[in-house]
TrEMBL record:
InterPro entries: Bact_solute-bd_prot1, SBP, SBP_1_CS. This is Solute binding protein of ABC transporter. It comes from Bifidobacterium coryneforme. Gene3D superfamilies: Periplasmic binding protein-like II (3.40.190.10). Belongs to the bacterial solute-binding protein 1 family. It comes from the Bacteria. The keyword Transport applies. SUPFAM superfamilies: Periplasmic binding protein-like II. PANTHER family: ARABINOSE-BINDING PROTEIN-RELATED. PROSITE patterns: PROKAR_LIPOPROTEIN (PS51257), SBP_BACTERIAL_1 (PS01037). Keywords: Signal, Transport.
Length: 445
């Protein structure tokens, strides 16, 4: 599964909205309508097509501003976008998934500096920025975090054991401390009633993305930050491959499952192991709470900490937080239509009805300050929000710059061969570094 186009499954609970919530919220839209502006949004998420159409109808009824929403079929967004931009009245609002998409559509993306959606971002660094100008040209409207989800009950039991490596989960702020804890847990798994410190690292299609995409993101993001990389590079150096090996080895040695059996393990297996209390740690993200809840877990049983792997200044590291869903404005649209579109987006993130639609009807977790008072029953989202409000250094989603799906597939295969003992770590390094340049060149031809 390619996670960065995975459906967001985080569900937020919001307070009941007043019947008259729409009244008084459409003044900016009315102005746009008087000027003849209209909105045309090409949506990339079929699972919320009905919700977008509903809120568009409500906005038009309230303000008189025409809002058209069309949704591309699953897996066809780029093709549909190309077709729509060739029409006489192309979308005024569209979506990109990251820097690679931006390179294709950069001539159509408007500067969003003066828009409310950019000004209301909790962290402006989350915006998608032009490599040429440094200006924000994409604003994320869905945000997620991934890290190491932990079972609070198991950790509470562990820290009470004689000679425990830490006194609290808060003491785990480096790879060395994480390794000390999980190695000790593995040795004392019978005392803890677990099968392993970590859930199984499955390598089928339902689970491999956690490693060839999300775990691989960790060394990529630090390398890109070191080198000032903000757009898809032609090559990577693999600066932090030793740290990548650190954490992957830990997943393999302190696991519920022998290395020889990992190829048959699935995401359902990992989810079940964690929910049943068979493992203390589970690499996944905010979207996984629904599955864990459905498996019987309570909100007060889970938390999330960063993925530590031996990076410099690791105690300052936060969760990996980002988006693969960015709103972009078509800079070739008329001034009237651009204004109408900006006003519509402002209403979506500031009005009570707009926020209810995004948070409750669509189930999105957003990065906007205007949603601070929207309550969530997702403990992993709570962990994300706490992390974003801290002074931790957020790990970005640099996997959105990966040159191709084949790069990820080849890396995953190399990691599986290493896990099974049929190949060495040099195969993983080659897949990571050499295949990047190869895939980059192949896609530029």
């Amino acid at each position: 599964m390619n996670h960065h186009v995975r459906q967001v499954v985080t569900v937020l609970a919001t307070a009941a909205m007043a019947v008259g919530a729409l009244s008084g919220c459409g003044s900016s839209g009315t102005t746009a309508n008087e000027e003849g502006g209209k909105v045309y949004f090409l949506n990339s998420k079929p699972e919320v097509s009905d919700q977008w159409k509903q809120i568009a109808e409500e906005y038009t009824k309230e303000t008189g501003v025409p809002v058209t929403v069309e949704t591309a079929a699953a897996g066809t967004y780029q093709q549909t976008l190309k077709s729509e931009f060739a029409k006489s009245e192309p979308p005024t609002l569209f979506q990109l998934s990251g820097p690679v998409d931006l390179e294709t559509w950069k001539d159509f993306t408007a500067d969003l500096t003066d828009t409310d959606i950019y000004k209301q971002l909790k962290d402006p660094a989350l915006a998608l920025k032009s490599a040429e100008t440094g200006k924000p040209v994409g604003v994320p409207f869905v945000i997620e975090s991934f890290g190491l989800i932990y079972n609070k009950d198991i950790l509470a039991k562990y820290v009470k054991l004689p000679g425990a490596a830490v006194k609290s989960v808060n003491d785990i702020d480096s790879f060395d401390k994480l390794k000390a804890v999980t190695d000790d847990m593995q040795k004392r798994k019978d005392d803890l009633g677990i099968k392993g410190a970590f859930t199984s690292a499955g390598f089928d299609s339902s689970s491999i993305w956690r490693y060839d995409t999300h775990l691989a993101n960790m060394p990529l993001d630090r390398e890109f930050k070191d080198d000032g990389i903000t757009a898809e590079p032609a090559t990577v150096k693999g600066t932090y491959m030793p740290q990548f090996k650190n954490i992957f080895d830990l997943y393999l040695t302190d696991s519920t499952t022998p290395r020889s059996q990992l190829s048959g393990k699935t995401s359902d297996d990992a989810n079940s192991e964690f929910a049943l209390g068979e493992a203390a740690f589970y690499q996944n993200g905010t979207w996984s709470w629904t599955d864990l809840q459905n498996a019987g877990m309570e909100a007060d049983q889970v938390g999330m900490i960063p993925i530590y792997m031996g990076m410099p200044d690791e105690a300052k590291q936060g969760l990996a937080t980002g988006s693969a869903q960015y709103w972009c404005l078509n800079k070739k649209a008329t001034d009237k239509n651009l204004k109408a579109t900006k006003d519509f987006l402002k209403w979506m993130i500031t009005s009570e009805r707009g926020k209810e639609s995004i948070a409750k009807d669509m189930g999105f977790t957003t990065p906007f300050k205007t949603f601070d008072k929207v309550k969530t029953d997702n403990p992993l989202v709570e962990a994300m929000n706490k992390d974003m409000d801290s002074d931790k250094d957020r790990v970005g989603w640099s996997f959105t710059m990966v040159p191709s799906e084949r790069w990820k597939d080849d890396l995953g295969n190399a990691m599986l061969e290493y896990a099974q003992g049929t190949a060495g770590w040099d195969g993983v390094e080659k897949a990571f570094v050499d295949n990047w340049a190869k895939e980059y060149q192949a896609n530029k031809q």
